[in-house]
Amino acid sequence: MKFIKIKGKDFEMQDAPVTQSEYEKIMKVNPSYFKGKNNPVEIVSYDDCQEFIKKLNENQTKYTYRLPTEKEWEYCAKSCDLQKIDEISWNNENSNDKTHPIKQKKPNNLGLYDMLGNVWEWTSTKSGSYRVFRGGSWYNGPLYLRAAFRDYFDPGNRSNGVGFRLLRTSKTRPFNTFTLDKTEEALKVATEALKKIEELLK
Fold first, then answer.
1. pLDDT, tens digit, for every residue of 48-104?
2. Fewer CB within a 10 Å sphere, N or C end of the chain?
3. If phi over 0 gives left and psi between -120 and 50 gives alpha, with beta otherwise, what is residue 15?
4. Angle at Cα 108 formed by Cα 107 and Cα 114, nearest 5°?
5. Alpha carbon 155 to chain centroid, angstroms
């Protein structure tokens, strides 16, 4: 799995959907209808994704993995709307009615592949009792492959047009230079105050 640091955000996004080989390595099964080790995994419910993430996070010391929220996913996909849809996506006009290996189309300007088309992607966002997925798939027309378009399923539903990609955050916070600066400033003020007190006591 490869992740891209998103500028201005505190998370990294997986550069492509989770593949069948990646899923099988963790779950020991491949539920996909369209078989191919580098194709996106599909026939996975929201609940299946959560089980995958739970296993992936076991014994992790550096990162925490999860599904992106709708807002996070849309932020990473919004530049896709400015690109030619056939250059960046597998849709019902070029997919031959199936999924395709990841990273065969052009990435968006963040370096993320297959944000639109190939498979829809589960998010962590709720819509009533349902869970939202985004991005469109191999069976959708180009008009539906827009960053703002959304759909939803029951969290237990599965489809050969729905997969997922991961987001990760660091478990170890970077050194807080802001706090350091404030501490040094406070020490400087205290030192100056002590000097003035010493001068008054002379």
1. 999 999 999 998 889 999 999 999 999 999 888 878 999 999 999 999 999 999 999
2. C
3. alpha
4. 55
5. 18
